[in-house]
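Structural prep section.
Before we set up the soaks we want a predicted structure of the protein with nicotinamide-adenine-dinucleotide in place, mainly to decide which crystallisation condition to try first. Input record follows.
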Amino acid sequence: MENGHAGKHRVAVIGSGNWGSVASRLLASNTAKLPSFHDEVRMWVFEETLPTGEKLSESINQAHENCKYLPGIKLGTNVIADPDLESAVKDADMLVFVTPHQFVEGICKKLVGKLRPGVEAISLIKGMEVKMEGPCMISKLITDTLGINCCVLMGANIANEIAVEKFSEATIGYREDKEAANRWAKLFTTPYFLVAIVEDIEGVELCGTLKNVVAIAAGFCMQ
Ligand SMILES: NC(=O)c1ccc[n+]([C@@H]2O[C@H](COP(=O)([O-])OP(=O)(O)OC[C@H]3O[C@@H](n4cnc5c(N)ncnc54)[C@H](O)[C@@H]3O)[C@@H](O)[C@H]2O)c1
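Run finished without errors. Recording the C-alpha cells verbatim:
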C-alpha cells in the first residue's frame, strides 16, 4: 500500500459519537507511538452547537475532550476535530467509519471522488441498510459506493468501558488482503484492547450486528 507521506500512514475517523470518540482516543494513543503512522488522527465531527453556544468541534479541539458524547475522558492532543468532511479525509489513506448506520450512505455519496487513491477503510458500524432489493451490509455499501477495500471491526464492546481502559476484545473481518487487516490490528491493539483477525467479513459483521438484536430481545424478556 502506497501512502505517500514519507512512509507514514494517515488516519481519519468518520464519526465522533460515543464509539467514534473512544476509537479516536485508542487510535491516537497508538499513532503517537508507532513510527509507521502519522501522529495526528483527524476526526470528522457532525457539527452541533452546544448549549453554551460553542461549536462541538471547537470545544473538542480546545479541551481535547468530547463533552457531549464522551465527557470526562481526554482524547489526546493529537486527535483533531474537523467539521468539514472533505478536509477531514483528504490526506488520509486509512479511513475508519463509525457513525450510526443510517448516515453512512449519505456520507459515502459526499466522499465519491474526494479520496486519495489506494485508501483503505474499516467499519466499526453495527447495523445494515435494508433496501427494496434486500439487506446490504455496511462494509459492502462502503466498498460499492467508494470502490475501496473495507474491513470490519466488531466485538461485544461498550465504548464507555474501553474509554476507561477496561479489558475488551474485538475481531477484524477481512477479505483477501491480510496485510491490510494486520495493519488495522496493529493500529487498534492496546494492552487493554485485544484484536484478532479472521478472513470472513460477512461472518464478523453479521455477528456484531445481530448480537445487538439478541441483546434487545433478551432485555425485553427480562422485563
Ligand atoms: N457506543 C458503543 O458502545 C458502541 C460499541 C460498538 C459499536 N458501536 C457502533 O458504533 C456506531 C456509532 O455509534 P455511537 O455510539 O458512536 O453513536 P452515538 O449515538 O454516540 O453518536 C451519534 C453520532 O451521530 C452524529 N449524527 C447525528 N446526526 C447526524 C447526521 N445527520 N449525519 C451524520 N452524523 C450525525 C452525532 O453527531 C454523533 O456523533 C453504531 O453503529 C454503533 O452500533 C457503538
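Observations: Residues 15-20, 46, 48, 69, 98-101, 103, 124-127, 157-159 surround nicotinamide-adenine-dinucleotide (CB under 6 Å).
Flagged for discussion at group meeting.
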